Amino acid sequence: MSEDSNTASCLFCRIIAGEIPAKIVRQDDRAVAFEDVNPQAPTHVLVVPRQHIGTLNDLTVQQEALVGHLIAMARDIARERGHAEAGYRTVFNCNAAAGQTVFHVHLHLLGGRTLSWPPG
Ligand code: AMP
Ligand code: ZN
Q1: What is the pTM of this model?
Q2: Which domains, ranges and CATH numbers included, belong to the chain?
Q3: pLDDT at 3
Q4: What pLDDT sits at residue 2?
Q5: Is residue 101 in contact with ligand 1, taking CB distance under 6 Å?
Q6: pLDDT digit string (tens) for 57-108?
Q7: Cβ(47)–Cβ(31) under 8 Å?
Q8: 115: closest CA among 34, 43, 35, 23?
Q9: CB atoms closer than 10 angstroms to residue 53
Q10: Dihedral of the alpha carbons of 38, 57, 49, 79, in degrees to the nearest 10
Q11: pLDDT on residue 120
Q12: 12, exposed or middle or buried, with CB in 10 Å at 0-12, 13-18, 19+?
């Protein structure tokens, strides 16, 4: 098992590999975006790197541009779905206190309703 792929045990690596079905929204050589199975807003998309990275704590300097790419992909999906002007939210949860449950870095894109702040 390489550090780039963790298909034996990681849910999102398995989705990226096509082993578990997901509704893919957009993908390229570095990232995959798919519908969250338990949506918290009319738009709830997860944008994940193809490379397995457990949490933001594991991010290296070399991977910083990759995170920018995830954010740009989320922005493009938000724009495509007409949320750009009204607004939308992008969130990375990191570890237990933030509620991270899948340990493959993922950016939540939430849009299509008014979102309260601060989050719970
Ligand atoms: P987090 O709590 O930040 O780790 O977010 C994990 C997200 O993954 C949650 O919003 C889940 O609803 C979502 N999720 C879990 N399993 C799947 C799946 N098989 N396909 C799509 N989304 C999933
Ligand atoms: Zn993974």
Answers
A1: 0.96
A2: 3-111 (3.30.428.10)
A3: 56
A4: 46
A5: yes
A6: 999 999 999 999 999 999 999 999 999 999 999 999 999 999 999 999 999 9
A7: yes
A8: 43
A9: 21
A10: 60
A11: 85
A12: buried
pLDDT tens, position by position, 11-29: 999 999 999 999 999 999 9
Task: Measure the CA–CA gap between 106 and 98, rounded to whole angstroms.
Answer: 13
Closest of 42, 57, 47 to residue 113, by C-alpha: 42
Q: State which of 35, 44, 46 you would mutate to test the pocket of ligand 1, scoring each by most atoms of that ligand within 8 A of its C-beta.
A: 46
Going 12 to 29 to 107 to 22, the CA torsion angle's sign is negative
Within 10 angstroms of residue 74's Cβ, the number of other Cβ atoms is 25
Atom of ligand 1 nearest to the CA of 44: 10
| Active-site entry in 44, 104, 106, 108 | 106
CB 67 near ligand 1, within 6 Å: no
Please indicate whether residue 83 is annotated as part of the active site: no
Amino acid (1-letter code) at residue 84 = A
Q: Return the ligand 1 atom nearest residue 103 CA.
A: 4
39 C-alpha to ligand 1 centroid (Å)? 9
